[in-house]
Amino acid sequence: LAGTVPEEPRCTVERADASLTYSVFLQRFAFSRPVILGGITDNSAFRALCTREKLLAAFGPFPVRLSTANTYSYRKVDVPFQEYVEHLLKPQDPARLGSDTLYFFGDNNFTEWGPLFQHYVPPPFRIPGTSPAYSFGVAGSGSGVPFHWHGPGFSEVIFGRKRWFLYPPDKTPHFHPNETTLAWLQHTYPTLPPAQRPLECTLRPGEVLYFPDRWWHATLNLDTSVFISTFLG
């Protein structure tokens, strides 16, 4: 379902295509700046398994663990996947606090969801000394995770569009940890001078964003979205 949240006027994250080599990735992006990668993998088979009907048929009765969409303290709630999709997968209420917003992303039971992840083709690049771990999510339009940081990783959109906001480690963004990304976009973002605005871009299905270690980032699903990240720990 398409949402009413706008895309950014201009993508300010660099893009690269399938001609990007691993050595150039390490040299130019791995440790220094984000990049959007297009056409580096083909996940059409995985996408076909991630429709609403296919996911409900495969995982409907299984519990999923939802987290609150705030920055520092996460409350966890377990519900059947079917209940989440049919009753909680709604557009974000701009007035609702992050601590009252439940979000399905990352807490997956790999015993149950493992067969699905076997069909995912991850980005071909790695950071030396790390190993990958998947986080899978389904979320409503206007939902997202407010600013936070962790280790490096990739994020791919399977369905929908996902808007990203990124700051380097030495530029802490101005945000309230219990404010949703949608509220931040509506209230704080318009007040930022151009020099204080984040790098930003909207990912579409098949595109992969790489973000380096300790980069601040916030996400905003412009539509009802399915997405998967590969964290490099």
UniProtKB/TrEMBL annotation:
Pfam families: Cupin_8. InterPro entries: Cupin_8, JmjC_dom, JMJD6_ArgDemeth/LysHydrox. GO terms for molecular function: cis-regulatory region sequence-specific DNA binding. Coiled coil: none annotated. Residues 99-233 form the JmjC domain. GO terms for cellular component: nucleus. This is JMJD8 protein. It comes from Struthidea cinerea.
